[in-house]
Amino acid sequence: MNIHTVFSLVSETHFHSFMSTHTPKKLASVGSVRRIYWHYTRKHLLAFVLVVAGSFGVQMADLATPWFLKQFLNLLATHKPSTVLAGAVLTIVVLVGLSRLCGWVFRRVQSRGIMRLELAVMAELYDHSFGYLLKHSHSFFGTNFTGSLTSKVGKFSGAYESIADSVLLEFFPTAVFVIGAVIILGLQHWTLGAVLAVWSILFLGFQIVMARRLVPLRVARAAASTAATGALADAISNQHTVTLFSGFAFETARFKDAITKWKNATSSVWFTDDNTWAMMGLMVIGINVAMLYMGGVLWTRGVLTVGDIMLLQTYLLGTFDRLFSINRVLRRFYDTLADAQEMVAILETPHEVQDAPKASALVVDHGEVSFRDVSFSFDQERPILSHLNLTIEPGQRVAFVGPSGAGKSTITKLLLRLFDVKAGSIEVDGQNIATVTQDSLRDAISFVPQEPILFHRSLRENIRYGKRDATEDEIIEAAKQANCHDFILSLPEGYDTFVGERGVKLSGGERQRVAIARAILKNAPILVLDEATSSLDSESEQLIQQALEVLMRGKTVLVVAHRLSTIMKMDRIVVIQNGAVVADGTHDELLQEEGLYQKLWSIQAGGFIADEDETLVAA
Fold it and tell me: Which of 188, 267, 501, 521 could form a disulfide with 466 if both were Cys (CB 3.0 to 4.6 A apart)?
């Protein structure tokens, strides 16, 4: 019997029928969890066999020891002390010792096997979950709490340990021991084996029925726990906003509400579980009294010996202990199963953006970017881009301006394939980006966002992310060109300084310069700047503008910008409104048209048009 079969008997038969109609959409099926876990388990078949063999051997030793003790007790009860019996007594003692020793050996085999199996599989589950999760789309991470996702990865891997322990160290050994006890007692008298077999089935059936009734309560508790974790992570990650908006009382009340729901859900589980324990206790008392009475009657008839009575009681206690533990195991089993289902649901969710079958690597010779009749929307009722046609020549610098929500940033995200177009195509040097690999596409594009987010790693590692095999000299040169070398050297640990989660230890301007250094180091033929200077003061902007001049040299540049100093230096300005191009030309040409661009310019520049440091808010 392997883990696949046991898991199927325990979970599929008694759990899947309920979950198929009551599981929330975010939970995967039990069968899906079983298939993934078994897939990785069978890759380590030797360790699995060691666990099964060890578990079987331990139970055989536990069954054999009372049998030898029965012989020992009968020998003492039916014979007077004599030296003649010394050899027989010694033989039985040696057999008891050997059975105990065998049990010890098999337990070592079992423990070594389970450690090797679980460590190997858990590591692979972590790798698989991380790799698949990280490739989900931009929109996926926008609609899921980071804290909840990281929690699900950890719980999914940890759930394997708990479920493997339950199946291989609890369910399987219990089945071996109870079946063995039934057979041996049945050999003493068929009624003893029959009664124990029927009671064991009823007892186990009662536990499974109660566990099934607890399923919706446990699912609700798991959901409440996830919601509480998400609320906690959301508030902590936005602590700065909470402080600025005096949101302590609001967030405390919000988190308290989540904890209250978790408390109520947990309370329902605990009290129902306690009632189950109470009923199980009564059932154990009943069978113990009944079996002892039957044993006593059979002894008075000369059918059983004193040793048989001892054997009966020993097997009963062993059966009670194992079947009682099953209830605790079932509780943990279903809790961890619900944890695993959450992550498996993510693993079963197809990646929104995928490489086409047999996708080729993008080859960029010139850097021409073309949008051909491109349409895009997040939902049918609200189109973002509609039949957009635009060609950017190699080496051309193009700025996108327009009202908020016009679709400017969406254009850059579509070029990077953070989303796929709904209609039309985007081409780079005549190659449809939907037919090339995502990695090769993004390798050809350097992207500097409005609010760069850095890893909680050293400044050196953050800059080197643009070229992960870069030398120290290349890193320093990129930092100098981005005008961040001096401020890095002023830090106590220089390039070894850790920047904090998301780069919070640095100012906005410092983060931006590090991001530009990363892009300079990458040196891709196409450059996308999404309002890369919007969050900077005048002094920082001057430093950034100098860095951008270096960065943009010889590249095809797409800029979503509102700084006049950035826009006016572009070769072309494309005005976007309602997802379509409404104007296209140089700064001077667009001002003469007296269209949307001239209106935006007039509103934001006012009487300070001559000052290039002023802002044209066109986003």
Answer: 521
d(CA 494, CA 485): 9
In the listed set 293, 321, 347, which residue is the last one of a domain according to the structure? 347
Contacts from 586-592 at CB under 8 Å and sequence distance 24+? none
pLDDT at 472 over 60: yes
Residue 78 lies in a domain: yes
- Reading across the β-sheet that carries 572-577, which strands appear in turn? 445-448, 526-530, 556-560, 397-401, 572-577, 580-585
Identify the CATH number of the domain in which residue 39 sits: 1.20.1560.10
On the question of pLDDT at 611 being above 60, the answer is: no
Tell me the mean pLDDT in the region 538-563: 76
In this structure, the answer to whether residues 338 and 377 fall within a common structural domain is no
Q: Is the pLDDT of residue 10 over 50?
A: no
Q: Is residue 400 part of a domain?
A: yes
Residue 579 to residue 389: CA distance in whole angstroms: 11
Chain length of the chain: 619
Three-state secondary-structure class, residue 428: strand
Exposure of 103 in the CB half-sphere (CA atoms within 13 A) = 16
Q: Which H or E run includes 448?
A: strand 445-448
Strand ordering across the sheet containing 382-392: 382-392, 369-379, 423-428, 431-432
Take residue 495 and report the two structure tokens written for it: 């390039």
> Which domain range does residue 590 map to?
364-444+555-619
pTM beyond 0.85: the answer is no
What is the Cβ-side half-sphere exposure of residue 120, based on CA atoms within 13 angstroms? Answer: 17
* pLDDT score of 1: 42
Does residue 163 contact residue 3 with C-beta atoms inside 8 Å?
no
Going by C-alpha positions, the residue among 11, 301, 58 that lies closest to residue 162 is 11
Cα–Cα dist 25/9, whole Å? 24
Tokens representing 372?
Answer: 């051909």
Q: CATH code at 370? A: 3.40.50.300
pLDDT band at 3 (very low <50, low <70, confident <90, very high): very low
Task: Report whether 538 contacts 545 (CB < 8 A).
Answer: no
Over the stretch 69-114, which tens digit does the pLDDT of each residue have? Answer: 888 887 777 767 665 567 777 888 888 889 889 989 999 999 999 9
Q: Please report the pLDDT score of residue 533 as a whole number.
A: 60
Candidate from 42-46, 357-361, 540-544 with smallest mean pLDDT: 540-544
Beta-strand runs (E) in 258-362 = none
Tokens (6 digits) for 207: 């536990």
User: What are the structure tokens assigned to 57, written together?
Assistant: 């051997």
